[in-house]
Amino acid sequence: MRWPLLALILAQAAAGAVCETRVHPVTKVEYRHPLTGFERTIEVIVEEPLGADGKLPAVVWMHGGAGGGTPESLEEWRGVTARGCYLSVTIGHAWPGPAQAEKLCEWMGRTFPDDCGEAKQGQVKLLNLARPFDLRATLDYLLREWAERIDPERIAVGGHSAGAGAALMAAGAARRYEERVETFADPRPRAFLAFSPQGPGSDGMFAGSFDGIDRPVLIGTGAGDTTGGEQAEDRVAVFDELTGPDQYLLYVDDESAPHGRFGLGLAKCASIGGPVADEDCDRVIGWLSTAALRFLDAYLRGSGEARTWLQEDGIGRETGGVVRVNAK
Q1: Which range, of 60-69, 134-143, 236-245, 303-312, averages the lowest pLDDT?
Q2: How far apart are CA 174 and CA 2, in angstroms?
Q3: Beta pairing partners, 325
Q4: C-alpha angle with apex 205: 201 to 207, nearest 5 degrees?
Q5: How far apart are CA 319 and CA 83, in angstroms?
Q6: Of 42, 75, 148, 151, which sits with the fewest C-beta atoms within 10 Å of its C-beta?
Q7: Which alpha helices (DSSP H) does 68-222 contain, by range?
């Protein structure tokens, strides 16, 4: 994405609050995974807004992908929120090593490796049992090492695809692992952004998975948001299960905006039917960025104007209904 355009998006979305940023070096975070007893190492990157004094609201982003990734995997979303003057963090969810993978398979009640694969990337979605604890360790690290810059009462968690499912788990969603149904909620984040989440009936989510979520949530999807047999309506079903208040569905009624567009990643300009002109691609990214920042401004900065914009579908008026926000 071209940063001059992004600065313009942020200026519109955050009412003039645009920050220059500093991307800090990759940091390794180690913790003991509670389900295996083994040490696990992940990598995080902090992008710090400059020129903003005092403690800042913060956003932690979790990428998708069944086989793992790096802390650069969601750098575009990290940049959007950092330039909106939120201290922003990305986590690299590394694929578990063989010994840890075996323990996770045993925890699920599978035999290893006969019906749990050989712990190869993408073979079994073991990262569904890693992301929630990676997030806990990252929050522990941030609240310890960045205590002078982070307001612990103003933290949000966002994610795309499998990372969106993990964000909703942190919010209180229940998930089925073979015969187990588990909830790995974290009480510390105040708000959650879930772009392209798994719906009921997909990847361990089920009808009723999302009943326990009572904190502010923004679900993002659209007509072209399909992957792995999952359709946009499956993701909309997540919003349908939420009971409110302060929970929203952002819907892009444009089939040229594919699944990857909602992660703002390298796939952002690859449409279903072929290349998309840069201005069309940037327009969708602008809509997503604007809505995310309005949501964060409403629930981490207490902006009444941003909350009204969400609840009264301000983006629907601005886009002629191509993009709309439904509120609970």
Answers
A1: 60-69
A2: 38
A3: 250
A4: 65
A5: 23
A6: 148
A7: 75-83, 98-108, 131-145, 162-171
Closest CA to 166 of 204, 116, 201, 110: 204
pTM of the model: 0.92
- Interacting residues of 144 by C-beta distance below 8 A, sequence separation 6+: none
Residue partners of 261: CB distance under 8 A and separation at least 6: 222, 224, 225, 267, 268, 281, 284, 285, 288
- Residues 194, 217: contact at Cβ < 8 Å? yes
Count of Cβ atoms closer than 10 Å to residue 139 Cβ: 21
CB 59 within 8 Å of CB 88: yes
Bridge partners of 222, per DSSP, are 252
Please give the structure tokens belonging to residue 97.
């090593």
Amino acid at 266: L
**Strand blocks (E) in the chain:** 21-23, 27-32, 39-49, 56-62, 87-92, 150-160, 174-177, 180-183, 191-195, 217-222, 247-252, 323-327
The answer to whether 163 and 131 are in contact (CB under 8 A) is: yes
Amino acid at 123: Q
> From CA 83, how far away is CA 8, in angstroms rounded?
11
CA–CA gap between residue 186 and residue 171 (Å, rounded): 7
* Average pLDDT in the chain: 89
174, β-bridge pairs: 183
